[in-house]
Known about the structure:
This protein is an alpha/beta fold. The chain has helices at 4-14, 22-31, 38-47, 117-131, 143-146, 148-157, 173-187, 195-211, 223-238, and strands at 77-86, 92-100, 106-112, 136-139, 160-163.
Amino acid sequence: MRDAEVIAALAKLVEGRPSRGFWKCRKQLRRKGYPWNHKRIYRVYKLMNLHLRRPAKKRLPKRQRAELYVPALPDTVWSADFMSDSLHTGKRFRTFNVTDDFNREVLHIEIDTSITSARLVRVFDQLRDQHGLPQVLRTDNGPEFLGEVFTAWAKEAGMAIQYIQPGKPNQNAYIERFNRTYREEVLDQYLFTSLEHVREATWWWMIEYNEDRPHDALGDMTPLEARQSAGNSIYELST
């Protein structure tokens, strides 16, 4: 079968990622060095019924939105948020997600049944050792972010906390978009039997997300490539 290799490559890309669209698939195939043009890929994509759309949703009225600040450099503004899900046994767990607004890089996902303000301090201490800390951390008004333990630590560490307005998650749009992708591609894809299972699946997905996934907003670079590109630009300006 002349298209067997194309079918195998597409099947591998959408395995566990049913929401992945054609152009995202094409970009990743191109990055992997496959020579096929987009017409051939799309023909096979359609033959595999991967183009079938979900039922249309009703459009909301247009609203005026303020432009979200886009940092010019990495580690300038980070966003953080909590998510919740459950194991196959019904036991609830939470995830604490931290991303860099500059290059959409996922910096950390903490997973446990309970994550307190003191736990956040440990997470950011670890991140400080790995990356340094941002000038600004954008969050909602959750009690963990408002707790004295965390706010006092952030002030001492020189990290300003920018709280979004209650009921306006669009003010933290980068992390909200990331959360949706993480839920679709990890949390909703598996029946997790343990926290270790969640952590392992998340770890491997983070590597793919940061190192292998091109982003439209980054000019089809991966988050890691965008960080490296920014670093090279800073070096060139300083020499």
